[in-house]
Amino acid sequence: MRRCSGWRRFLFCLPLIFFLPHMFSVMELHQKKNSKKSDHLVLGPAAGQGLPNRLQCEGIKAVNKTHSPTSHISIGRESIAFVTVFAIHNSSPNTHVDDRSSNLVTVGNASYSKVERSMAILNVFINFIQVRMPQSSIIILTDLVSDLRMHRNRVAVLPIQNEYSRDKLMLQRIMSYIAFLETRLEELSHMEGHISHYIFTDSDIAVVDDLGQIFQDYSSFHLALTFRNNKAQPLNSGFIAVRGTSDGILRAKLFLQKVLEVYSSKYMSASRMLGDQLALAWVIMSDPSFDRRKFTKAQVFLEKIGGASVLFLPCAIYNWTPPEGAGQFHGMPLDVKVVHFKGSRKRLMLESWNFFSSYGNISDMLCLVLSSGRTKYDF
InterPro entries in the record, alphabetically (predicted)? Predict the structure, then answer.
């Protein structure tokens, strides 16, 4: 092949300098068009096949069973309340009908606008809790203007004044948790004989097994966090359990206030996402007695952090996230208790509930989750 050298050859090759970048841009655009996300589930091989203590599936049929249909744990005169933060964004009542129709997403037999699918996810969050832990209650912390209209048993909406903008949502969530714990601490002084434990979670989780055993099996912690073997972000803030005693609530409140202080001083650039997790990790890691090597093993452990007794629970069981592609991770533990449909996995959460409500088998539903392919995520 002749090389382009000299002025004549340079002038001959000059058009290629302008043409090639344009050609690559067109190819990139074509690839993006072809990689459009599918609007339905795409099933593939379930990760973890053949591994011990992992869910084994044949298609979407579970070979080994994970959970008993009625595994509700009694903790006497104690109860559990799930607490989540939820606010409606961009929900102007003057939204044009055409704008709504152009934004619809269909899941099963239902079509949702952005606001409607957010509400659908919130309702599915409640559905799973009420099926797996029917004696528990749900408290939704929201802003002063969102009209959630949640007319459901054992569900309460509690407006808390704060800034619920998307840009500061994670910061506001910590502030709302602290405000909630302050009110509960005041109320506790007027109550006798009954204790309500609290589990603060994102609203995109599915509780698939009873969580009462946390408070029953581990009696000395004030708050519990979930961890994973991730050097940059070892803690996930989507699940925080608080013991409902006066000491537990006080210690948890003080701990979260420290997290908020670190968040506000060090991680405001990440206030929309991840800032709370980075602040959580900083508070834990800065304790001189803490050994971060404990994060490498998916085993429960207890540590004293700044005056609080903190229980560390492995994400693999208490905050498991569906894989983003076939073969990722090492499958699903048989004793998984919480599935977190974070990020763009929201469709899968709705699909999972539709499947479970049709067939009533939690193990088969988990096979559906485990076998789902990345291409189906669209919101």
Answer: Nucleotide-diphossugar_trans
Is 196 within 8 Å of 338 (Cβ atoms)? no
Residue 323 tokens read as 């894989």
Q: What pTM was estimated for this model as a whole?
A: 0.85
DSSP three-state, residue 349? helix
The whole-angstrom separation of Cα 323 and Cα 325 is 6
Secondary structure (DSSP) of 168-202: GHHHHHHHHHHHHHHHHHHHHTT--S-EEEEEEE-
Taking only the tens place, the pLDDT of each residue in 334-363 is 999 999 998 888 889 999 999 999 999 999
Residue type, 214: I
Q: Which amino acid is at 361?
A: N
The secondary structure of residue 286, as a DSSP letter, is T
Amino acid at site 73: I
Mean pLDDT value across the chain: 83
Residues of the chain with pLDDT under 70: 1-40, 66-76, 89-102, 192-193, 271-272, 324-329, 374-379
Whose CA is closest to 317, among 161, 193, 167, 211?
211
Closest CA to 236 of 269, 268, 198, 284: 284
Sheet holding 137-142, edge to edge: 155-159, 137-142, 78-85, 195-201, 235-242, 223-227, 308-314, 301-305
Asked whether 225 and 214 are in contact (CB, 8 A), the reply is no
- Burial class from Cβ neighbours inside 10 Å (0-12, 13-18, 19+) for residue 191 reads exposed
Residues in the chain: 379
Domains defined along the chain, listed by start? 76-90+99-376 (3.90.550.10)
Neighbours of 116 (CB within 10 A): 16
Tell me: the pLDDT tens digits for 83-99? 999 988 654 444 444 45
DSSP per residue, 2-18: ----HHHHHHHHHHHHH
Measured CA to CA, the distance from residue 377 to residue 360 in angstroms comes to 24
Which token pair is 300? 């429960």
Give the residue from 243, 263, 374 showing the smallest Cα distance to 308. Answer: 243
Residue recorded with tokens 């609530």: 249
Give me the DSSP letters along 47-88.
TTTT-TTB--EETTEESS----TT-PPP-TTEEEEEEEE---
